[in-house]
Design brief:
There is one protein chain. By secondary structure, the protein is low in regular secondary structure. It has a single domain (1-70), classed as Herpes Virus-1 (2-Layer Sandwich), CATH 3.30.40. The chain has one helix and two strands; from the N terminus they run E-E-H.
Amino acid sequence: MENVETWVCAICGCYDPILSSPLKAAIPEAGATTDWIGCDCNRWFHTQCTKLKKISDNFSCKQLKMQCIVPVRRVAKSKSKGKK
């Protein structure tokens, strides 16, 4: 599976499905998958790890009292042409 990004939950640090989570009581049956919710800042969470009763379409890290990840801005290198 080359060129595939692997995400972990920002709360429990586990992949999908949650096999070694501290939230073992909430783990679905073996072979099942876990629902994910993502913030616009590109941080991802297992919906059950958030412990939110209702997850809206405008979910953000702020609902979990977390700061959003600051996107890394790429600065274009300027090429100097002409006189100095």
